[in-house]
Write a structure and sequence with these properties.
The chain is mainly β. The protein contains three helices and 53 strands. It folds into six domains: about 60 residues; about 100 residues, Immunoglobulin-like (Sandwich); about 210 residues, Immunoglobulin-like (Sandwich), CATH 2.60.40; about 90 residues, Collagen-binding surface protein Cna, B-type domain (Immunoglobulin-like); about 120 residues, Immunoglobulin-like; about 90 residues, Collagen-binding surface protein Cna, B-type domain (Immunoglobulin-like, Sandwich), CATH 2.60.40.1140. Strands 11, 12, 13, 14, 15, 16, 17, 18, 19, 20, 23, 25 and 27 form a 13-stranded mixed β-sheet that branches. Strands 1, 2, 5, 7, 8 and 10 form a six-stranded mixed β-sheet that branches. Strands 38-37-41-43-44-45 form a six-stranded antiparallel β-sheet, with no helix packed on it. The relative contact order is 0.07.
């Protein structure tokens, strides 16, 4: 009977142990997940999507790769370097919360900036809020440029005679191919119109043209004429790239007499030419070409200015092609690029026009006047700024070469995004005791010996009753970056003296002409019985340059009138002193968290305590920017300085903290409602009863051990 009872107890304790372990593990897991969620970062994913707009302004979902952007904060500080959209038209990055904007540097080839109200749109602002969890997408557009293609037909007789009616009625067939495989509309001079799918055909007679309008810039086209018996064809512009203008594919057909085999073959001469502002290094580049002669390919290369000659016989079909010129920044046109050989020699010209970024070199030299290389006065280096208007394009540190020459070189784009040549300027960061003079991009620095000026001394006089010993403090402040006396750091100089006397302000070294100003005041103390001088003096040092020599003149003014010295008068009165006051001021700082700013309270109440006793309270609102200021007595009746502290009346849903005289309020939300639906007030802390389950886990484990041991004793009996 005892064994059965112990088995029942063991099964029960085992079930309680397993249940307690499962519940405890589940609560622990959810607690871990909650902590993980609460500690997630505030870095957000930002995605810039660049898409196409049609010339009529219609937006599309077609991505635009190759668009260059720079990233700035809302204050105009650039972040990182230049970024370019990928094949999907996208730039992706992660940023902390804040306000930013993308600035488009230049659209890709064949595209223009988007526009609004007739002005180009280059700036795209966005804001990342705190606790941003999703992806923020900034959408930008570029307008696709368009151009036109004209196919024209001319017929002539080899002997120059007039055309017959039959010749004028002769129809010639053309195959037009576009690199994107698209369908484009055309109109003919005979008044007809139609649409042509890439690889389709159209017919033209003598004097007729077919015009394709609104073709996307950068589109590659090929116009090929079908062979017409009895006619030789010479073509111009049958293969090329659509720009933002008009491309012309002109075909001239000549009625040939009955062919008579020549005694000698005709010559086909191919010439290579470059146009535009191409890189100088491309003059030595070998461009890859192919001759298709009766559909048999022959590869060859040509440098700019070179020619290649082939022998053909009348009736031979030829075509000249060029490989891989587009990726090198060129567009192409071919004169007489294909056709049928006749009795005359054939001249083919392959012209590549550079459309990439044109760079220019800017060179200059720094020279020094008035000082030699061995005088020890030249700096180790200088800093030069290459500027486009106010924008710094490049910064360079320049040092002398082995011959002592200060030469420098910059390489920068020659044209801006609109195709206008950029007028660069050069600026040198100031060099002490040197005056820069600019001659184009050359700089001459002339040494100007500095001049040293002894500033006037502060003069102190004491009046009134027999005074106790008192130390007086005076402050000199430099205005607009004026240099300070030797041995001084910063814009301020403080001197002191006891009783009547003079306090020197020191000497100042001036390295260039200019007007330098300083203000001198007395720092008012709070010693009882003393009255301090409120006078404000201005020291003006005027430095002029004459024939490379600096001269300095010093003047003193007080309250706008000339003054002979920096004279301050203090008076001591041994009788009762006027009440000395002190100023207490601070700022209310809000941390709203998830609470919208507009739901904060309309006002708060600031409490002021003097030595722990409430003496003042004041209402503070947003109308005064949550700022408060109190002017209160500094000493009590016993002459002891009063200790002031501040506090704040409680604000619902906000925790308060006192930082000096500033008040910081942090929002805390209401606790979540009781899921049981009880009307009782929600309880603070964890309501999962995790402690109870842990207790059951431990108790059941201990019970299992005790039961197991007792059962073993029974079994041994």
């Amino acid at each position: 009977m005892g064994r059965v009872f112990h088995r029942i107890i063991s099964v029960f304790l085992t079930a309680v142990f397993i249940l307690s372990a499962v519940v405890t593990g589940t609560y622990s897991w959810y607690s871990l997940q909650s902590v993980t969620n609460e500690t997630a970062g505030t870095i957000a994913q930002v995605r810039l999507q660049k898409l196409q707009k049609l010339p009529d302004g219609t937006a599309t979902d077609i991505p635009v790769p190759g668009a260059a952007f720079s990233l700035f904060t809302a204050e105009g500080e650039q972040i990182g370097g230049r970024m370019v959209t990928d094949e999907t038209g996208t730039i992706s990055l992660r940023l902390p919360a804040g306000a930013y904007y993308f600035e488009e540097d230049a659209p890709p080839p064949s595209f223009a900036f988007d526009s609004a109200d007739g002005e180009p749109v280059t700036r795209y602002p966005f804001v990342l809020t705190e606790n941003e969890t999703g992806q923020v997408t900034v959408t930008a557009y570029n307008i696709r440029l368009t151009g036109s293609l004209i196919v024209q037909k001319t017929v002539q007789n080899a002997d120059g005679s007039s055309l017959s009616d039959e010749q004028r009625a002769q129809a010639f067939t053309f195959t037009v191919t576009f690199s994107d495989g698209g369908t484009y509309a055309y109109r003919k001079t005979d008044g007809t119109a139609g649409e042509l799918i890439s690889g389709g055909t159209l017919t033209l007679r003598h004097g007729e043209t077919a015009v394709f309008e609104s073709l996307p810039a950068g589109l590659l086209y090929t116009v090929a004429e079908a062979e017409t018996p009895g006619y030789a064809v010479a073509s111009d512009g049958h293969r090329g790239t659509i720009g933002d203008g008009t491309a012309i594919a002109s075909f001239v057909n000549t009625l040939l007499p009955e062919p008579v085999p020549p005694e000698e073959p005709v010559r086909l001469t191919v010439e290579k030419a470059l146009d535009g502002e191409y890189p100088a290094a491309d003059l030595d580049r070998e461009f890859e070409m192919v001759l298709l002669l009766n559909n048999e390919p022959t590869a060859f290369t040509l440098k700019p200015g070179e020619t290649k000659t082939f022998e053909l016989y009348p009736g031979d079909r030829y075509e000249i092609c060029e490989k891989d010129y587009i990726g090198e920044g060129y567009s192409q046109s071919i004169t007489n690029g294909f056709g049928t050989a006749g009795a005359e020699d054939i001249a083919v010209t392959v012209t590549n026009t550079f459309t990439g970024t044109v760079m220019k070199e800017i060179t200059g030299e720094k020279t020094w006047q008035g000082v030699g290389l061995t005088d020890g006065l030249l700096p180790d280096s200088i800093t030069l700024l290459l500027k486009d208007g106010d924008r710094v394009v490049e910064e360079a540190e320049v040092t002398p070469d082995e011959n002592g020459r200060w030469c420098y070189r910059f390489t920068a784009p020659k044209y801006d995004a609109d195709g206008n040549e950029i007028a660069y300027t050069l600026e040198e960061l100031p060099q002490e005791s040197f005056r820069p003079d600019y001659n184009g991009f050359d700089i001459v620095n002339t040494y100007i010996p500095p001049v040293t000026v002894t500033l006037p001394s502060v003069v102190k006089a004491v009046e009134g009753d027999e005074p106790p010993e008192e130390r007086f403090t005076f402050c000199m402040t430099a205005q607009d970056g004026a240099p300070m006396p030797e041995g001084t750091s910063g814009r301020f100089l403080t001197v002191q003296l006891t009783g009547s006397g003079e306090a020197p302000l020191g000497t100042v070294r001036y390295t260039k002409a200019g007007t330098y100003r300083y203000t001198v005041t007395e720092s008012a103390g709070d010693t009882r019985g003393w009255t301090y001088d409120p006078a404000v003096y201005t020291i003006t040092v005027t430095v002029t340059e004459e024939s490379g020599t600096l001269r300095a003149d010093t003047a003193i003014t007080g309250d706008g009138a000339p003054a002979g010295s920096l004279a301050f008068v203090n008076r001591y009165d041994s009788g009762p002193s006027p009440q000395v006051t002190t100023v207490i001021e601070g700022q209310k700082i809000w941390h709203h968290g998830t609470n919208p700013e507009e739901k904060r309270p309309d006002s708060i109440v600031v409490l002021v305590y003097a030595d722990g006793t409430l003496v003042l309270q004041q209402q503070v609102t947003a109308e005064n920017n949550w700022h408060y200021r109190f002017e209160l007595p500094k000493y009590n009746d016993a002459g002891e300085e009063i200790l002031y502290t501040i506090d704040e009346a409680e604000v619902e849903h906000y925790d308060k903290a006192v930082d000096g005289y500033d008040l910081v309020n942090t929002y805390h939300p209401d606790p979540p409602p009781d899921p049981s639906g009880s009307d009782e007030s929600p309880q603070t802390g964890d309501n999962s009863h995790l402690g109870l389950w842990i207790f059951l886990l431990i108790a059941s484990f201990c019970g299992l051990i005790v039961t197991t041991r007792r059962r073993r004793k029974i079994d041994r009996r």
